[in-house]
């Protein structure tokens, strides 16, 4: 079988990580930053001082939700 595998010119998603042809991970970082920003805006609604969550609860939610979204796959793309 003499089939030649052609490299993809578009980013490919595998296990939630976007791989581009040059392994710059720019698309992955752009997508994750957008998702983290959206999560932050949702969390911001809970932060009203009058009747919102405490600072401790907000910090815990920030670490659990926003940082985990932004940091996903960082051992692969951080170098």
Overview of the molecule:
With 79 residues, the protein is mainly alpha-helical. It has one domain. It contains 3 helices and 2 strands; from the N terminus they run E-E-H-H-H. The chain has a two-stranded antiparallel sheet. Strand 1 and strand 2 (17-19) form a beta hairpin. Helix 1 (26-45) packs antiparallel against helix 2. The longest helix has 20 residues, at 26-45. It is elongated and about 70 Å long.
Overall pLDDT score: 88
Question: Percentage of helical residues?
Answer: 40-55%
Helix/strand-derived category reads: mainly alpha
| Separation, N- and C-terminal Cα atoms | 37 Å
Q: Can you count the beta strands?
A: 2
Note the overall shape. elongated
Radius of gyration: 18 Å
Strand % is: 5-15%
Question: Low-confidence parts, pLDDT < 50 over ≥5 residues?
Answer: none
The string of secondary-structure elements, in order, is EEHHH
Strand order of the largest sheet: 1-2
Q: What is the makeup of the main sheet?
A: 2 strands, antiparallel
Q: How many structural domains does the protein architecture include?
A: 1
Number of H- or I-type helical stretches? 3
Key features of this structure:
mainly alpha
Q: What topology does this entry show?
A:
Elements: E1 12-14, E2 17-19, H1 26-45, H2 55-71, H3 74-77
Antiparallel strand pairs: 1-2
Brief characterization of the structure:
The chain has 79 residues and is mostly helical. The protein contains three helices and two strands.
